[in-house]
Specification:
3 domains; 22 helices; alpha+beta; 13% strand; 14 strands; Alkaline Phosphatase, subunit A; Serine Threonine Protein Phosphatase 5, Tetratricopeptide repeat
Amino acid sequence: MKQRLMLASLVILSLAGAASCAGPGSSGSGGPRLIVLLTVEGMAQESNADLGVTSIPADLLAADPTSSEPFYTPSPVLRPAITSLMTGRTPLEHGVLDNTSPKLPAGIPTLAEDFRAGGFATAAFVASPLVSWLGGLERGFEIFDGAEGFAFAAFAHYPELRPAGQVVDNALRWLGTLPKTKRAFVWVHLADLSAPPELKGEGLDLDRRAPRIAELDQAVGRLRAALRDPTNQPAVLVVTSDRVQAIGSVGDLGQGFFVDPAFIRVPFVTEQLGTRAGWQPPLRPSGLVGVGAYLEEMAAIPGGRLAKPTGGESGVRMLSLSAVPHSWCRWSPGVVAAAGSDLWVFDGSYRRAGAKGGDAFEVSETEVPEPVRSRISAVVEALSKPPPRGPKVQEAVAVAHSYGIEFGADDFVAATPPQAQRRELVERLQRARAATVQNRPAIANRSYRALVEGPPPVLGAMIDRILFQALPGGSGTAAMETARGVLVVAGAHPIAIHWTVHAAMSVHEYALAEAFLQGYLEMRPDEPDALYDFACLKSLTGETEQSASYLSRSIEAGFRYWDLIENDPDLRTLRTDRRFGQVLKSHGR
């Protein structure tokens, strides 16, 4: 199936202003006046009918003679990729490894912070909650209009998204209020292609994507038209994307999964529109990690802190990684490294491809150069290393043992399924998750059962099944049995610990749930979902003062799902306490 999407990628438009009004924040201080960063999730450099993806418009590719040069995302997962763009660091450096990772650490500088320190007005308009308040990417933006849709449980893979038209309308309204002499950095993020696939019987109806693509095209077209107005020129247009979104393919599980040359090579195009004679953009980066430094140099920001990426050790350069196969399925993490004219892929076994992509062919370990093996082994070890069992985790394990619950080894790694089997596993998991968020319980239950019973059993499906069974109308007893199986496979892994909490709460085992929550927060302090779960737990046990404290901390950490907070049955007791209103008022409600 071949779909057409105009400008479905990441776009940066920088509009140079008049040479008057010199000084910080004015158009005469050098560089462009307005930089609009538009990220549209999930498009490829080239069309591929088999994957259901297409390329950026041909006129944009033709505008840049360097557009055919390889350009890579550091992760096929949304939040790590965008965080790398905004920080100039790889996922291992900034620590955001998947869409459920804790917030970006406060000590890491961001692109928006540097622009604001350089005198720019800063604003963001973001469609996906996965890169909104939950990710810590609001830092540095004076205006942050981020999505607050639900993004936990099954919705962590298919979150509630704002439509492209609404996001672009908000951005254009804000741009219309901007003084012509004021320099500004604006981020607009569109996510329509990451919406869950429609179901058709027991399968995925990929043809239903067409209206979504058309709406996205129209929104992006309106933004381009507004910014191409002669009064806004001269301009520079840069196009790239965070990852390849290949619905129904082996490369994507809702928000990214496997690393593969077909899914990590993304477009990067620079087009100049009315720029002054002799002006040239900075040296082209080779991946998303370098885009922040590229923009800071283009804007001539003094003291920009986003460094240009350096070359790899021993001629080996790490291109992309995915921790998701390990964290969600206990399979080997995925890593892609470049050495000379070759790409080396490791995801349980080694494959080799050319630098410009194409098929990756399996090779034996002895065929891989030693420097490549060493670099990849170090990254795989770092991604697979389980967090230490601190005192709270050990206490949780002891409490669980009193319930007859057993734990497997924390460092267990299952065999990664062969390439030929992955597509079927991926499509089953997509179908189960899509059915859950679309309230199709019969289809979800059949799909989860097939994945859990295997072979091979998929840990991610077991975890999702806990949440599905713990939903109202489900079976708490069944959820607890599934949780026991997860702990045998995953040990005291953070994800296994966290989702067992939901099973324990569904059968009213509140002491067990509290021990697991304490252990989880020891491993991942200030996790919004876990803090909210603690607020619910303390409300259920009548401890309203502690419940209010945890609720306030969860909102501060990014849990901004007001409809749920104001209607969740688990918070019923807290809502009768004056502290509930005080918490909401303190957070602007």
